[in-house]
Automatic annotation (TrEMBL):
Primary residence: cytoplasm
GO biological process, one term: fatty acid biosynthetic process
Lineage: Bacteria, Pseudomonadati, Campylobacterota, Epsilonproteobacteria, Campylobacterales
Job description of the protein: Involved in unsaturated fatty acids biosynthesis. Catalyzes the dehydration of short chain beta-hydroxyacyl-ACPs and long chain saturated and unsaturated beta-hydroxyacyl-ACPs.
Keywords: Cytoplasm, Lipid A biosynthesis, Lipid biosynthesis, Lipid metabolism, Lyase
Species: Halarcobacter ebronensis
Short name of one Pfam family: FabA
Domain of life: Bacteria
Broad EC category: lyase
Name of the protein described by the UniProt record: 3-hydroxyacyl-[acyl-carrier-protein] dehydratase FabZ
C-alpha cells in the first residue's frame, strides 16, 4: 500500500492535478489498484456542471494514467535517486469508454493491468469502478523517459 506522500515521491503531479489518493495493491509488472475520493470541492465541479456535478471523463482517464505511471515506475525496480530522474509520458489512450457518471461522494477505484512491459515501454488495460460498477475503461500506452 502507498499513501499520498509515497505517491508524491513517484509522480510529479500536485494539487489540483494529482488524481490518485492511495494505492491499495500493487504487483510489480502485473497490476495496481488505487483510488481517488471524489469531493464536491474538486475544482472541475465549478464548471462541470453547475447544479448537476459530474466528474469529467478526461480526469478519470488521467487518474488511470497516473495509477499506471506508479505501476510502470515501480515495476522497473528503480532506486530512489533513479526514480527522481525519470518521468512517464503517455503516448496514447485507445478504446476509451465511459459507462456511468461519477459524482461527488464517490470513491473512484482504478484497476490497471499490464498487457505488455518491454523495457521502458508499457501497455496497460485500465478500468475505473465506483462500488463495483464499471464507470470507464481504456488501453493506455506509455514510455519511461529521463527528465
Amino acid at each position: 500500500m502507498l499513501d499520498i506522500n509515497e505517491i508524491q515521491e513517484i509522480l510529479p503531479h500536485r494539487y489540483p492535478f494529482l488524481l490518485v489518493d492511495r494505492i491499495t495493491d500493487i504487483e510489480k509488472g502485473k497490476s495496481i489498484v488505487g483510488y481517488k475520493n471524489i469531493s464536491i470541492s474538486e475544482p472541475a465541479f465549478l464548471g462541470h456542471f453547475p447544479g448537476h456535478p459530474i466528474y469529467p471523463g478526461v480526469l478519470i482517464l488521467e487518474g488511470m494514467a497516473q495509477a499506471g505511471g506508479v505501476l510502470a515506475l515501480k515495476s522497473n525496480d528503480l532506486t530512489k535517486e533513479q526514480l527522481a530522474a525519470k518521468v512517464i509520458y503517455f503516448m496514447s489512450i485507445d478504446g476509451a469508454k465511459f459507462r456511468n457518471p461519477v459524482k461527488p461522494g464517490d470513491k473512484l477505484e482504478y484497476r490497471i493491468e499490464v498487457k505488455k512491459l518491454r523495457g521502458t515501454l508499457i501497455v496497460l488495460e485500465g478500468k475505473a469502478y465506483v462500488d463495483e460498477t464499471l464507470v470507464a475503461e481504456a488501453e493506455l500506452k506509455a514510455m519511461i523517459v529521463d527528465k
